[in-house]
From TrEMBL:
InterPro entries documented for this protein: Imm71, Imm72
Domain named Immunity protein: residues: 230-332, 432-484
Transmembrane segments: 112-130, 142-161
Keyword Iron-sulfur part of the UniProt annotation: no
Keyword annotations from UniProtKB, A to Z: Membrane, Transmembrane, Transmembrane helix
Protein name: Uncharacterized protein
The organism of origin for this protein: Rugamonas aquatica
Pfam families for this protein: Imm71 (PF15602), Imm72 (PF15584)
Amino acid sequence: MTRPQKNSMKNFERPLKRVDGVVENLRIEYASAGAEIRMDFFACSVDGVELRGAFHKVEFHDGDYMEFIVEPEGEFSTVHAARNPGTRMLWMPPHQVRGHAAQKLCDIRWSFLYPATAVVLVGISEFFVDPDFGTHAFSAELLFYSLVFFVTLAITVMIRLRFKGFARQTTEVLRAFGYEHPEMVDLWQLHKQAQKALAASTNTLPPLVTPWSYRYSDQQSKTTLSTGMTDDDRRKIFWYLKRKTSYTAWSREAEIFDRFADVFAKQVREQPIVAGSMFEANWTPFLSMVVKAQASYEQALDRLRQGDRTVFLQNSRGAMVDATILSEHWYVELINNGPRGDHTYSGKYVPAMEDLMREFVLAVADRGYLQPRMADTPAPEAWDSFWPALYAQLPLPAQLDDVPLPAGETVVRSGTEVPVFGIYEPHIQDGCMNYLLGGTPAPTLWETDGAGSTGNALSVNWRLIWEDRRYRDGTIPAEERLYFPLAAQAGIGCGFK
């Protein structure tokens, strides 16, 4: 591998271009551990383009969707910056921290702060060391401290001038990324703001980052990070996933099935045998199946309210899976007339049961996810043109919370085990967040063109955005009152008494 040309302090020789795509065949060729600044030299390919570059530490991986700013150099392109829109991290070469205008302001500030500090420190030292302090002639003192000030100023200016070329390069890189007013961007200040926002959203100290890497937010970048999905879309999807996987959503489904079971029991009590109906016109044998579904719902909800989400898994603890298999059977029978459409039912309460099953299936569409029976099933949510229509049907709050910044580095590849239940976001352009189930294989993701699925399932890296820790103390968050407003007003299926 040919070592990438070291950045000079001059502007780039060739126009910069942006290369976006999934990282493939990433290789860390060598690390300059003994140099003044340790650097990882790497090579990879993105959409068939061979890239080579160096950062203090390479922290992206094969399968990550990345945005690179490169300078074409024949057979390969030299990387001058990298950005991961999934993790909101930006990597720059050493000393490239600010646009040239922001750097000039910084230089002016420090060029006077350092000499002033030097004068103060010399004065303090003289006060403690010189027994004749304050007795010297004013002109002599003025000359001495002026000399200290201007010598320090000259040294500071000489040092700060070294960053002028780096700042010019930073401006060009940020312009290639699409920043507005790139010359005024101060990556270190934006990084501190993003770290502070992360701490506020997670109520924990944010993790430290390696030198020359920076956190950022979409609002700070002032640039579109994807071709379709916006920050507002991400906030709505995040709220939607929390609502869909809530205790309130599941208890709403169970409450409707309880009403169905009450009507079913009336049918058994008042008209157990109906002339002309199927299965010898006898409703009684099926009541035990309905009661078993009720019991499974009750057990699953009791455990979920204590934070036990294993009820969603396809195993012996999957009480919610058992409940849905039994309950959805009656939608198939009463609304679809059985798996083949040849089952017919009659009875005094059949119309009422059919109405409740239609209400039930609407609640099923509003609740969360169960472990698929087929292991290779892609994640259920993908970015397509149907989301705006869905937003219009949701009782979205007027003010939505921002999507929390990842508190750690929990990343899981499709096919490997998901460590915890929660909302994950794929490292791919316009990758849609999904709620993944702990202990199950991470799914693939449907590839979309913005309008719909292309039919291809992509293997991706999923990054944990939010770990689901709700209900561990037995309480339901107050925000769930807003998930289903009509049900909350009626006190139905919301868990609030």
